[in-house]
Design goal:
By secondary structure, the chain is mostly helical. It folds into four domains: 119 residues, Tetratricopeptide repeat domain (Serine Threonine Protein Phosphatase 5, Tetratricopeptide repeat); 80 residues, no CATH class; 44 residues, no CATH class; 63 residues. It is built from 19 helices and no strands. α10 packs antiparallel against α11. The longest helix is centred in the middle third of the chain and has 20 residues. The protein starts with 5 loop residues before the first helix and ends with a helix.
């Protein structure tokens, strides 16, 4: 999902009961002492933890936290709440509000002349997931060139850069960025967030190997990804489901996770992919507002329909996928789509 909270979110998700219990006690105390800023701080933590573990009602606590912080909080606390709100809005599928919250945090940081590396990283990640790939590439290159990218987030930035390069069919460049990101990650503390980042990078390595025609290497990378002790987070689920689909492997772990968290829209889409319900998954992604994921699923749906002799249905999926890929210059996927389009003619 997003890099600027990856480590915190992963830890919170693994210690949900403990975090809620402690935060609940702190909330009672803060209200009793009439400490408004402290109340906002605790509501922020409680709300984020609830959303991360599948309870969308946590959004209400985050919104209340922001209201209190705006009235009584410091710029740091306001920025912290907006950051958590941006991530949480995305998790529950309110992507326009996620974008707005992230932009508001950057605007405030700039107004108070604060460092903006974390905020700009968040916006780069949102731009990538929303299909604004030129903006994402520009933001990532600026962060890496300026040295302002937060150290903990550089592997995630390079992972997305690798994905953008692979889409443009620069396999050598993509592989270089992926391996550099893995090397950087290996030098960092191996906490829950680092494990989540590692799994994502291994999935990118698998995708690069598939693009190069090295299927055994892709299978090996997938084995490594699956062996990482990390839960299937919302920002990993769809990529994992797609890679499992491409490698012809069962998606039981994805389906199980989706079943356990029915309120998570991204996991529900991933579960549909794992069950080979590709057209339905793509339609849900279109409704959510995630064009890159939607196009990726539609391209696979088209391949499936061509194999089944359903040419007219394949053409519908291809036209929608190609519309996005052509708009962002994704050479690799345009080539794949146009080859399939010829087969449907």
């Amino acid at each position: 999902m997003f890099a600027n909270l990856a480590r915190l979110l992963a830890v919170l998700a693994e210690r949900y009961d403990e975090a809620i219990e402690v935060a609940g006690e702190a909330l009672v105390m803060a209200k009793k002492l009439e400490r408004t800023e402290l109340t906002a701080h605790v509501l922020n933590t409680v709300g984020l933890t609830r959303v991360m573990t599948g309870d969308p009602a946590g959004i209400e606590e985050l919104e209340e936290s922001l209201r209190l912080a705006l009235e009584h909080g410091s710029p740091f606390e306001i920025g912290r709440v907006r950051n958590n709100l941006a991530v949480s809005y995305w998790i529950v599928g309110r992507v326009d509000e996620a974008d707005a919250a992230a932009a508001a945090r950057l605007e405030m940081a700039e107004r108070f002349r604060l460092a903006t590396g974390w905020e700009r990283t968040a916006l780069a990640m949102f731009a990538f997931r929303r299909g604004r790939w030129k903006e994402a590439a520009r933001r990532i290159d600026e962060l890496l060139a300026s040295g302002e990218a937060p150290v903990l987030l550089e592997p995630d930035l390079r992972r997305v850069k690798a994905q953008l390069l692979l889409a443009r069919d620069d396999r050598e460049g993509a592989a270089s960025e992926c391996e550099r990101a893995l090397a950087l990650l290996s030098s960092q503390q191996q906490d829950a967030g680092a494990r989540a980042s590692l799994r994502k990078l291994l999935l990118v390595r698998a995708d690069i190997a598939l693009a190069e025609g090295r299927r055994p290497a892709a299978q090996e990378a997938m084995d490594s990804a699956l062996s990482v002790p990390s839960r299937i987070a919302h920002d990993l689920a769809i990529e994992l489901a797609l890679q499992l689909y491409d490698l012809g492997r069962p998606g039981d772990s994805v389906i199980e996770e989706a079943s356990s968290r029915p309120a998570d829209p991204w996991l529900q889409v991933a579960g549909a992919i794992a069950q080979r319900q590709l057209e339905q998954a793509a339609d849900r992604l279109a409704a959510l507002g995630a064009p890159p994921d939607e196009a990726a699923v539609r391209l696979r749906a088209a391949k499936q329909f061509v194999a089944e002799g359903r040419r007219a249905e394949a053409d519908v999926q291809l036209q929608k996928a190609l519309a996005f890929y052509r708009s962002v210059g994704a050479t690799r996927y345009i080539r794949e789509g146009e080859a399939l389009l010829a087969a449907t003619g």
